[in-house]
Amino acid sequence: QEKVQQSPESLIVPEGAMSSLNCTFSNSASQSIWWYQQHPGKGPEALISIFSNGNKKEGRLTVYLNRASLHVSLHIRDSQPSDSAVYLCAVSGGGSNYKLTFGKGTLLTVTP
Amino acid sequence: DPKIIQKPKYLVAVTGSEKILICEQYLGHNAMYWYRQSAKKPLEFMFSYSYQKLMDNQTASSRFQPQSSKKNHLDLQITALKPDDSATYFCASSQDGTGVSYEQYFGPGTRLTVL
Description:
The complex is a heterodimer of chains A (about 110) and B (about 120).
Chain A: E1 4-7, E2 10-14, E3 19-25, E4 30-38, E5 45-50, E6 54-58, E7 61-66, E8 71-76, E9 85-93, E10 100-102, E11 106-111
Parallel strand pairs in A: 2-11
Antiparallel strand pairs in A: 1-3, 3-8, 4-5, 4-9, 6-7, 7-8, 9-10, 9-11
Chain B: E1 4-7, E2 10-13, E3 19-25, E4 31-37, E5 44-50, E6 53-57, E7 64-67, E8 75-78, E9 87-94, E10 105-106, E11 110-114
Parallel strand pairs in B: 2-11
Antiparallel strand pairs in B: 1-3, 3-8, 4-5, 4-9, 5-6, 7-8, 9-10, 9-11
């Protein structure tokens, strides 16, 4: 059974700072790792995904994956108050391409 | 226009009753899913369907039954409701691809409260 752990549980950063979120997973055979953003009362929305070791950059987002250490991180450059939300790490694979296993999330608050 | 419609948005039920949660997607996807999010627990996978066929079932209880009447519909019937079933239920959809994990798009959710 895949396990996904996220840290920290909550994070407060000032506007313009870098936000760094962490995620560890249990199955090295997992396929893609996804980061989702969820605002209160809404469904999660996918932000970025990564499959291969290394990093991937999209706009203000950079994600790093290290399969050997089963660790992935998300970095948000120049954080804005509108980035305040819960960020969910999700892992696919482990026998099924259809199932995403989610972590509990990191609550990010960006203060003006 | 919303691409994934879930109805109703809020639902209150009494213990022992039965409810159906509706999901329709207009993204042209062939794979659909149900997830559950309850307080202090991670978003939890329940079912996946591809081309109207059940692919994965991670729900131990037979009280939860997905129903796919059309390609873009995946409803969730819950029988003999219990207070522990109180949660927000999310429907999602994606392209279908063997060996590939495609982005899953989530609906706005149905918040179910069982008294």
